[in-house]
Specification:
By secondary structure, the chain is mostly beta strands. It has one helix at about 1-20, and strands spanning about 20-25, 30-35, 40-45, 50-60, 60-65, 70-75, 80, 85, 90-95, 105-110, 115, 125-130, 135-140, 140-145. It has a 5-stranded antiparallel sheet with strand order 6-5-4-1-7.
Length: about 140
């Protein structure tokens, strides 16, 4: 039985990894749609740098999930491979090193964005603010990893 469970987990892992593709909106004021066509109902508008998880692709469209779990369609041309992270905590504290006792460099309020600079490690991720400031934020305060 354990062997069967292990085989099932190994079979599903590549599909789970493929589902975790994050991209960011590269333009200001991009609409997310109910279906993959411009004539479909617009669900809401997102701003530049907003991160989304790509679930699937269809021609020139991407089916995406946002930080709230909402699913919609967006034109593929509106997305960038540049990775931005959304602050989901009340505020994210960005520190000089990957440690809660290191000096505070800056804070970012909820719904602010930070550019991903490096892969997460030990609960921290290196980020860059739009003004160029660099530091480390806790991954638990962010969405889009």
């Amino acid at each position: 039985m354990k062997r069967l469970v292990c085989l099932l987990v190994l079979a599903v892992l590549p599909q789970l990894a493929a589902a975790l593709e994050f991209r960011s909106v590269k333009e200001t004021g991009v609409a997310l749609y109910e279906a993959p066509m411009l004539s479909a109902k617009k669900l809401f508008v997102v701003s530049r740098y907003y991160p989304v998880e790509v679930l699937s692709s269809q021609k020139d469209w991407e089916r995406v999930r946002d930080a709230t779990g909402g699913i919609a369609w967006i034109p593929a041309a509106a997305l960038s491979k540049q990775r931005w992270l959304l602050v989901t905590a009340d505020k994210a504290e960005v520190r000089s090193t990957a440690s809660g006792v290191s000096s505070l460099v800056f804070t970012v309020p909820k719904d602010g964005v930070l550019e991903l600079q490096d892969s997460p490690s030990a609960g921290w991720v290196k980020v860059r603010h739009r003004d160029g400031s660099l530091g480390y934020a806790r991954i638990t305060d962010l969405w889009g990893l």
